[in-house]
Amino acid sequence: MANTSTDQFFKNPVLGHPAGLFVLFFTEMWERFSYYGMRALLVLFLTASLFDEGWAWPREHALALYGTYTSMVYLTPILGGYIADKIIGYRMAVVVGALLMTLGHASMALNAPFALYLGLFLLIAGNGFFKPTMTSIISQMYENHQHKKDGAYTIYYMGVNAGAFLGILLCGYLGEQWGWHWGFGLAGIFMFAGMLQFYFSQDIFGEVGKKPEKTDDEKASLDPSVKLNPFSLLDKAFIVISAVIGLVWIINDPMSKIGDVNVFDFEVGSLSGSNFMILFALAVFLILLVSRIVRYAPIVRDRMIAVSIFAFFTIFFWAAFEQAGGSMTIFANDYTDRVLEGSAGTIFRIANTLITVIPLGVITWVLWMLFKQTFEKYKWANIILGASFVIIWALVLRMLYEQYTAEAPEVPASWFSVLNSLFIIIFAPLFSKLWESKYNPSVAVKYGAGLILLGVGFAVLAYGSSDIPQGAKVAAVSIIWLILAYFFHTMGELCLSPVGLSYVSKLVPGRMIAMMYGVWYLAIAIGNKLAGTTGGMIDTITAEYSLSTFFLLFFFIPGGAGVLIILLHPLLKKLMHGIH
Known about the structure:
This protein is mainly α and about 575 residues long. Helix content is about 75%, strand content about 0%.
């Protein structure tokens, strides 16, 4: 793409960045609204008693399904990224993905087991198209402005968390106060709004993201950094073997617990059939990855090795961080004192008003800045976006009214997840400025700090739960421990997650960007499944040791990984060949 084709995006910027970035900001915001709104309710709904209109599942079963869902959400982008990259283009992939997710949320709003599983399937498929394409569009928009990429991804990540903030707040409020399926349904409404807003404004991206044209193989091969590396028959066989076994294993885990159907009902030596098969699939995938990396030119090869190392450490981060939707939600629901009386209730009302109205006001201001640049040319997109915000404000005011008129407000268990998004909205601009300043640390230090801060958050929870008796199913500890834990987790996330996306785009040649994002999301998928598996051990570890011991595991493992990657800084610097 010629320089002028990307330079044009910066001629009439919004807050120093192309207006198209903020179209993606709001599109992703509604997608994250739907995803995190539903995620905040899923485990609570599954484990709630029949009296509370839940399904009364054991915690282990609910977390097994939760882990499978969240992991497959990050697996399908590997296929979706390929289809977008080679066949339908990024823009169409966004529309298809958003439509599938809208249908998924609509299905989950029905109170039936089949509808729940169908809804989760549609959400997984939709995410496969949606997730890798959004970041790929940003990568192409900024291809001649590399120095602004970290800031752009951090702003984009602020949009991600603005959606998560609103989704958890409002879907959680409707789900816990009005009924679970009201919350699931609201997620679908705003997913549909996000799809329409993107569809009517997509011309703002110029030629970026359109249906791809065939590549001139001979021309591409002249540049050794992007030389063609077609998949051999053996490569394709390894992909099929590892993918099929991995998918069957992920689905089999909740099936074996919930439905008592175990596809891997055998043993190999001391290993269960399930463990043996997933280790075999992992070994096949690693052989495939190594064999492909060594075929590239030296600089590309080294940079892909660096990406693989970062992806490995990403697994540790998400395996601990995604406890937020599992064991930390259970801790909030069953072990935290959430009924606030007297002055405590007044403080919560005021604080909740401030943390709701101020961020929503900031996001509305960003919306106004976008309106001023784009309303005349993209009227329908802006009307839909504006109408969505009118509905959001109405729901927020209704929620606050009910809290102020309640004698002793009860903090919804899902509310605590809002803190992660709130802290990101507050601190993301500061981190964005830091990454663009002369004090920008190396990526290894950012990763290490992210993992260590994540571990500190779990150390706080371990301390806060230290007085809970061994094997206790309920308790009433102060909410301050969850608030502090989410603060440290958020600081860690800002150091690692948006920066990771940015470095993938910097280190990988543009022709392979969507597929490599798929590999990156594979690492996150593994972490998410591990989060569900380890979170499901909460009852076992609490009964044998204590709840404090359970949380301490998530202090030592990511904390140790953080120290290790900082020590690997010299090696990673060499592998990255000048990319900072």
